[in-house]
Amino acid sequence: MPDEKDYQAIVEKIVSAGRHGPYIVAHSTELGSVTVSLESSVWQEVDWPEPGTYIVLSQVRKKRAGWRAKLGRFMKPSDEQGAKR
User: Fold this and answer.
1) Which helix (H) or strand (E) holds 79?
2) Residue 38: alpha-carbon gap to chain centroid
3) pTM (2 decimals)?
4) How far, in Å, CA of 11 to CA of 14, rounded?
């Protein structure tokens, strides 16, 4: 069963013309480097994030080339409140 935990990460860079489309490279303290597609089926926001933006990653999978998130979105105030409980 896949890990359905959410992970907070900080956007390190945006690649707008990757081989498989646009994507984000983000850093999570728990996982290290994580790649997130910016395709609309993965990135749940209208706007793309900027480097330094906090995001939330879900449905994270380990692949040969590293961690991949199947869902990503901007971090909200309620995400921080949930982490403090």
Assistant:
1) helix 77-84
2) 9
3) 0.86
4) 8
Taken as a whole, the chain contains a residue count of 85
Element at 78 (helix H, strand E): helix 77-84
Q: Please report where in the chains the tokens 């906090």 appear, as a residue.
A: 54
Q: What is the C-alpha to C-alpha distance for residues 7 and 55, in angstroms, rounded to an integer?
A: 8
pLDDT bracket for residue 4 (50, 70, 90): confident
Domains and CATH numbers, the chain: 7-76 (2.40.50)
Cβ–Cβ < 8 Å for 75, 6: no
Neighbours of 32 (CB within 10 A): 11
Residues 58 and 68: their CA atoms lie apart, in Å, by 9
DSSP 3-state of 35: strand
Closest alpha carbon to 14 in 37, 30, 33, 31:
37
Contact (Cβ atoms closer than 8 angstroms) between residue 52 and residue 29: no
